[in-house]
Write a structure and sequence with these properties.
Layout: H1 2-20, H2 23-33
């Protein structure tokens, strides 16, 4: 159960890392946030 709790706590960090290192997501976010 400790592993499950640890994994649950790490999920947000893992998700942030995946989004940070995903060029497509970065491009999509910049495209939506950009005024032009």
């Amino acid at each position: 159960m400790e592993n499950l709790a640890l994994t649950t706590l790490m999920l947000p960090f893992i998700g942030a890392l995946v989004v940070s290192f995903s060029p497509q997501r970065r491009a999509a976010e910049w495209g939506f946030c950009s005024p032009h």
